[in-house]
């Protein structure tokens, strides 16, 4: 059972940008910038799971890391529980991170192979001075139970576990400080298909039990539809569509969203035969040199002169708050 969603946003992101400088020459002068995230705005409501989808390299993971201040924003605002994160110093950020945690994509690279499971999960507790040694040990064992692992595994090392078990350890570590917000950065992409559903169901159950709010980053559209309350579609550093998951999946207003959804295989053989694929032409442009106007116009079948010349406004075509449906397309009305 999904938790009721609050009316006020827990996270508010406004015009967020992250540009990585391109340096060349003997004197390492900046000659350009990779616009990994370029003017992203959205809200995440308390108790909600917001899915963030898009092609590899579109800026999804960078967005999550900038929200948590693991990467410094080039420009823009991130407000968490009424606090502007981009203005905090290192001490204040560390204090705020008790309420914000991350589940990393690779369960093999994100766990220190020289530390025991008990030390890995207990490290956040030690950093934030939560409890004494005995209390921390008990907390670690409880967290292992919560994620479905044997509490007596505390003295084992990461190499003794499977990929799915390692990701559960990563989830336990993220839960250690009792956070209210978790960024799940493609938490199932490195796992076997048979294990993916188990991990996603566990995350959904934990959300209801612990009152969590998620930013769920993924490229598996079927899984995003299953777990997310709303979905944001990202292309080349910008969000092109944002709305309630079922509405976006059944009534997409952006040509890029339509193309992504047309690629989802249908379990019903009759529907699979009649499924119409929308094949995009060309490759994704470089984020170091994005196209003028609408960034999708080089691959879109509905391109006109205005698409090539003017950047489309990210506008709401219906509803308020959770019910709103945002899209960045000059011709969205023809799909409405």
Structural topology:
Elements: E1 9-24, E2 29-45, E3 49-53, H1 60-67, E4 75-80, E5 83-84, H2 90-96, E6 100-103, H3 117-127, H4 133-146, H5 163-175, E7 181-185, H6 193-210, E8 213-217, H7 221-227, E9 230-235, E10 238-244, H8 245-250, H9 255-262, H10 269-274, H11 305-309, E11 315-316, E12 326-327
User: What would you say the CATH architecture of the domain at 9-85 and 232-335 is?
Assistant: 3-Layer(aba) Sandwich
Give the end-to-end Cα distance, rounded to a whole number of Å: 31 Å
Summarize model confidence as the mean pLDDT. 90
CATH topology of the domain at 9-85 and 232-335, by name, is Rossmann fold
Strand percent estimate? 15-25%
Please mark out the parts with pLDDT under 50 across 5 or more consecutive residues, or reply none.
none
CATH superfamily placement of the domain at 9-85 and 232-335:
P-loop containing nucleotide triphosphate hydrolases
Characterization of this structure:
- The mean pLDDT is 90.
- The protein has a domain at 9-85 and 232-335: P-loop containing nucleotide triphosphate hydrolases (Rossmann fold), CATH 3.40.50.
- 31% of the residues lie in helices and 23% in strands.
- Helix 4 crosses helix 5 (163-175).
- The protein contains 11 helices and 12 strands.
- Strands 6-7-8-3-9-10-12-11 form an 8-stranded mixed sheet, with helices on both faces.
- It is α/β, with parallel strands linked by helices and 336 residues long.
- The protein starts with 8 loop residues before the first strand and ends in a 9-residue tail after the last strand.
């Amino acid at each position: 059972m999904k938790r009721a969603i609050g009316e006020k946003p827990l996270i508010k992101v406004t015009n967020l940008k992250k540009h990585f400088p391109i340096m060349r020459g003997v004197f390492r002068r900046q000659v350009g910038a990779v616009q990994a995230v370029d003017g992203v705005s959205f809200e995440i409501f308390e108790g909600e799971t917001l899915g963030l989808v898009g092609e590899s390299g579109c800026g999804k993971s960078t967005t999550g890391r900038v929200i948590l201040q693991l990467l410094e924003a080039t420009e823009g605002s991130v407000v968490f529980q009424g606090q502007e994160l981009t203005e905090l110093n290192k001490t204040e950020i560390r204090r705020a991170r008790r309420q914000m945690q991350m589940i990393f994509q690779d369960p093999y690279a994100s766990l220190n192979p020289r530390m025991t499971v008990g030390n890995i999960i207990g490290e956040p507790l030690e950093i934030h001075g939560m409890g004494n040694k005995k209390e921390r040990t008990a907390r670690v064992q409880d967290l292992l139970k919560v994620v479905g692992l044997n509490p007596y595994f505390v003295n084992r090392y990461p190499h003794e576990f499977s990929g799915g078990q390692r990701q559960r350890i990563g989830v336990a570590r993220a839960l250690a400080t009792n956070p209210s917000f978790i960024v799940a950065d493609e938490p199932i992409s490195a796992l076997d298909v048979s294990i993916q559903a188990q991990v996603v169901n566990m995350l959904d159950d934990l959300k209801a039990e612990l009152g969590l709010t998620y930013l769920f980053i993924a490229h598996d559209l079927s899984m995003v539809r299953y777990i997310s309350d709303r979905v944001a579609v990202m292309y080349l550093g910008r969000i092109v569509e944002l709305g309630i998951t079922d509405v976006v999946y059944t009534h997409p207003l952006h040509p890029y969203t339509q193309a992504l959804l047309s690629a989802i295989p249908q379990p019903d053989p009759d529907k699979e035969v009649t499924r119409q694929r929308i094949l995009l032409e060309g490759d994704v442009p470089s984020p170091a040199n994005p196209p003028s106007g609408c960034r999708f116009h080089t691959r879109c079948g509905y391109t006109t002169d205005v698409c090539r010349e003017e950047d489309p406004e990210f506008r709401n075509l219906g509803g308020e708050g959770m019910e709103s449906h945002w899209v960045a397309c000059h011709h969205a009305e023809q799909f409405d």
